[in-house]
Structure formats: C-alpha cells, structure tokens
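Example (one chain per record):
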Amino acid sequence: MINKITDFRLALLDWYRHNQRSLPWRTEPSLYRTVVSEFMLQQTQIKTALPYFERWMERFPDFTTLADADSEVVLKHWEGLGYYNRARNLHKVAQWMRDSEVVPDTVEAWKALPGIGDYTGAAIASIAQGVPAAVVDGNVVRVLARLTNEQTSFSNNGKAVDFFKDLANELLDQASPGDANQAMMEIGATVCTKGNPKCTLCPLQKFCRGFADGSVSELPKIQRAKREKVRLYRGLAVDQKKILLHKIDSEAKRLKGHFEIPSLECLKLTEDSKQVEAVSVRRRAISNQSIEEHLFRVDTEGLSIDGKGALNWIDFSEINSILLSGPHRRWLMEYLGISTNT
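Predicted structure:
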C-alpha cells in the first residue's frame, strides 16, 4: 500500500466527494462552525449532536456572541449533550478568540487553548485552515488497522492512536488535508464500521491487507476496559407544585452547578425506609460505568428542608429553566407529566 500512496489518496478523496454526508458544518463551513462541531463531536455521535448544533448556531452564531453570553446560558444550551466541561472550555475558547488579536493557525497553537488536544487541534487546523496534520480517532484507527492487517493487541484506544499517528500523516493528502481527514473518519463511520463492515462498497478494498487476509472483522485488536457497575438510589419528593432537587457543588468533578434528583442518603433515608416506595429502575452508561438508578417516591411528611442548602424545593414552572442532566430531566418530566415546552 505504501508504494501506491497517490492512488490511495485519489481513491479516498474521490469517494468522499461523491459520498460525504451533508452536515451543517460542511455545507456552510467557517472556522467558528468547525470549532463548535469538533467540541460537540469529541464524545458524541453525529446524529445526536446535529439538533444541538443547529440550536447552538441560532443562539450563538459566532465567537463574540458566545464569548459574551453568561455561563449559565451556555450550559443550558448544552444540556443533554453531557460532558459539560466541553461547553465550559468552548466558552473559554470563544472568549480567548474575542479578546485576542491573533488567530491560532497551527495544531500546537490550538492545543494551547482550553479543551483542545491532539485530535481536536488537528481537526480544526486541517479542516478550517488547510494545515497538513492528520487526525486519528477510533474510526481512523479501525480503517488503518484493517488496511495494514495490524495484529498488535493494544491495551487501550490511546495506545492504538499513538501507534497509527505516523502512518496517518504519511497517507494524508497534503494538498487537501481537511477533506482527507474527514474522508478517513467518514469511511470509518459509514463503510469500515465496527460491526458488519461494507467491504464490497469500500473504495479502499484493493489497498486493504485485512480484506485480502480475511481478518477485517478481527481488527483492530484493542483490549476493552471492563465497565464498573454502579447502583444509585434516588428520591422523588413532591409537595404541592414543587419538587425537591439537589444542587451539585460548584467544585464537583462532574455536573457542577447542575440540579439532580437527590439520593436517598442525601434525604437521610434508605431504600428500606417506610417513607419511600419504589417507582422505577433506570439504566444508563457514562464512560466506563454502567449505572443503575433506582427511583423512589418519597412521603414528604417529616422531611425538614430549609431551602438554604444543597437541597431546594423547585417549582414545576422553573424546571425547564434550571440546569439538569439530560437523563434526570427526562425522568422528571415523565414522572411529573410535564412537557419540556411548558
């Protein structure tokens, strides 16, 4: 394959130009839209990010508008995407861009800004500014591992990314680095997929050693971390038209400043208390955690809440305006029978 790099680049770019998905940051490209999309896509699938991107652009159409916005407003518009430090860092980047007289134009310059690492820096610089720097994510690792029939077993995805960086840069079309990077990610997401790869439709089939060897389905070889199982017990306490919620400390590692359904421990109750009644069990996953959340209806008689601490009674009419994690908002709305448009 190394002897046919020019043919490889032409095949990849030709496929991309005829088969790329129509995405808003591609149809109306700009530096700002590239930055926003790359932050949103760091840990979110495209189909999930799309509606958020459209709403974001309506509210924050440029760096200055975003930079001038209050942090609470920024987080509110990010709500449901998770990993909120991305929104905080994007806000800081916008403020830096507003206040700086210089626009970063190298991968290293972008990496000096909050929340931007190797991948995001290379993506922004190559796509928006034509800097010849390869991006390597899970999709690209999968494509390169199959192309080279790489049999190395990697302890984690980060090790695999590091391993394939040099090859990715060697294969990168220097004249069209942005399209070349997007093409590699696109083919990994739509053709060279993790399960049921569409090898018969792949424009890179003739370059693929994994296909020739019949080992595509086995690659890449990456040891997956075991998911930690977490069980939580939470209380739904309603009094008149108010619900008791817990506000997460501003110094917390995750969801700082957000409200959440309080734990029974926070309410000084247990799942065996006579004051609670099981309602439902909800399951979700965050990073390497598999979380099982047990929701209980709480009898409010005897609860003593002064409203001055982390526990606060929130009026139903305020629920849509406060910061809540996406899952907790959905569960609350369902339990209370409230529309998200109320």
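Caption: The CA atoms of residues 144 and 207 lie 11 Å apart.
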